[in-house]
Structure formats: C-alpha cells, structure tokens
Specification:
Keywords: Glycosyltransferase, Transferase. It comes from Gluconobacter albidus. GO terms for molecular function: ADP-heptose-lipopolysaccharide heptosyltransferase activity. InterPro entries: Glyco_trans_9 (IPR002201), LPS_LOS_Heptosyltrfase (IPR051199). The chain is an alpha/beta fold and 306 residues long. The protein has 2 domains: 116 residues, Glycogen Phosphorylase B (Rossmann fold), CATH 3.40.50.2000; 160 residues, Glycogen Phosphorylase B (Rossmann fold). The strands form 2 sheets. A 6-stranded parallel sheet has the order 8-7-6-9-10-11, with helices on both faces. It starts with a strand and ends in a 12-residue tail after the last helix.
Length: 306
C-alpha cells in the first residue's frame, strides 16, 4: 500500500503539514509513503521510517517540474494521493483515492485548514523525526544544561526583530540560568543576519549554517526555550516539542502562529500584516518568555524519539 504525499516547497508550510502526514500514518499503519517537497524541506522526512522515498521538486519554467513529477510517479498504482499543493497531478495518476487541498487565502490558521480539508476533527499537530545518531550528536553539541535557542533571521528583513533586542532578551534571561544558542540557515545572507546577535552575545554557541534539518530538530529538542522570528525554524522548534515563542509583525500570526504543546506568539502593535517589528519591545517578549518557562514541566529538555 503506497501513499503519495505532496507538500510545500517552503520549510514553514512543510513543517505544518507533518501533522497531517503523521495522522495519515496512524490511520493507515500498513502504508508506505512517498513525500514530494522542495529541496529546503527534504531533510524533514529523512528520518521518518514510514517514508520510503523523498522526491525533491525544484521549480522550472512553464511548470515543467509538474511534468517531471508525473513521469516519476505515473507507473505506480497508488492507494492514495494527497496533494496539499492543489495541483492537477492527483487527477492524472492511478489512485484509489484522491485528496486535493485547493489553495487560496482563507481566514484562520493554516494548520487547522489542512486538518479540516482531510476530515480530522482534531487538528493534527506537527512533529519531527530524528535518528538515534542525530540525537547522539546533539547531546555532544548541547550537553545537559538550560539552553536558550535564538532564531534571529527570516526570509525577508521586514520580519526580523532588531538584533540588539535579541541580545537584550538573552541577557535578561540569564537570571533564569539560560545560555544562548544561535540558530540560522545556510548561506551568507543568513549568516550576515545572525552576525549582530553573535557579536552582541560573545559567549553564545553558534549552531547555524549547513546542518541538516534532522540535526537542527535534535538540537532544538535539547533547548529549554526557543525565541525567534516568524520563520521555518520557528515552526521546526514548535514541532520538535521545544517551548516556542514566535515573534510577529508584518506577517500574520492568525494564519501562521507556531503550533505545539508550549507554542506561543507575541505581535507588534498595529494592523495585522502591516505592523513593524520595531514596535515589539523587549519587556513584552520577556514577559511571555518568562510565562512559558514558568509553566509546569518545561525545564526538562525534550530529548526526542525515533
């Protein structure tokens, strides 16, 4: 029994969709899954034992990436095709059942929209898969302790909280015996965005760069708290079970707030979708971060599972 699961090219949306994938795996325990996603999200699924194949789909002119995908999949007789991209490919493959989630902006959280589209009464929460080796490596990089994960970058500058405020927050949270760890994605642009925070916190551990998503998830699971901008990393932290505080300004918390057991967000004052991040002050973020830390059982790190 094989199920084709087509998810987003973008990391944040792909993380959100892992809850649906997990729910499908529980509903069909004998099924094996082929996951289609963008290159940046492929690492999410590498440690999933039910994922027998990952097809990375890179955008090509004239939508030729969809033709390539059809050629890759048309020989298989699928038990089910689940297409979260709302394409026509699910109608052209041999499948007993098809679920096609159409796009378009609707009110409400994206995670709830996906769950409703697939008929789940309870919203499927995102999750991550990590390997034993990834967890062992994370334990070496982040031994037992109280680690504050900071995510000071984002895919566009308007979503970035001023770096000096990340520094001030981390310094204030030293009273909670938290030591900062800075995460960011691959590439020179990401490094440049994180650099002011690293310079302002010379004792912080630098864990950004070219780590796989599974490695990053395993590292995040060892942190007492994540504070970061609205980004794929924020969603990954929440899915990993790390207490997560997402920072929102011009992006929409009503649609993309982090989802998890201890996931919270704060918004800059102003109209949703237009509020500048400079309106979000350190005191507001610090209060919410402290409230999260004071909730029951958040001090022990989440060490993950197979």
């Amino acid at each position: 029994m094989r199920i084709l699961f087509i998810t987003s090219n973008r990391l944040g949306d792909a993380v959100i969709s892992t809850g649906v994938l997990d729910a499908l795996q529980k509903r069909y325990p004998a099924a094996m899954f082929t996951v289609v996603c963008g290159p940046v999200a492929a690492g999410l699924f590498e440690a999933d034992p039910r994922c027998e194949r990952i097809i990375t789909m890179e955008k090509r002119r004239h939508d030729r990436h969809w033709i390539d995908l059809w050629r890759d999949c048309f020989r298989t007789r699928w038990f089910m095709v689940v297409d979260l991209r709302g394409s026509l490919i699910g109608l052209t493959l041999r499948a007993r059942r098809r679920i096609i989630v159409r796009g378009g902006r609707r009110p409400g959280r994206r995670i709830e929209q996906l769950g409703e589209a697939l008929g789940y009464r309870r919203t499927p929460m995102p999750r991550v898969w990590t390997s034993r080796a990834q967890r062992a490596n994370a334990a070496v990089a982040l031994p037992e302790g109280r680690w504050l994960a900071l995510g000071p970058t984002a895919n566009w500058d308007g979503k970035i909280w001023p770096p000096e405020r990340f520094v001030a927050l981390a310094q204030a949270l030293r009273s909670e015996n938290l030591r900062p760890v800075v995460f960011y994605g691959p590439g020179e642009d990401e490094r440049a965005r994180a650099e002011p925070v690293l310079k302002g916190l010379p004792d912080a551990l630098d864990l950004g760069g070219n780590h796989t998503l599974g490695d990053v998830a395993a590292l995040l699971q060892r942190c007492a708290l994540f504070v970061g901008n609205d980004s794929g990393l924020m969603h990954l932290a929440a899915a990993a079970g790390t207490p997560t505080l997402g920072l929102f300004g011009p992006s929409r918390a009503s649609e993309y707030a982090p989802a998890g057991r201890l996931a919270r967000f704060v918004e800059a004052p102003g109209p949703e979708g237009h509020a500048p991040m400079t309106g979000l002050d350190v005191a507001q973020v610090l209060k919410t971060a402290t409230d999260i830390l004071n909730e029951k059982n958040v001090f022990a790190p989440n060490l993950g599972a197979d």
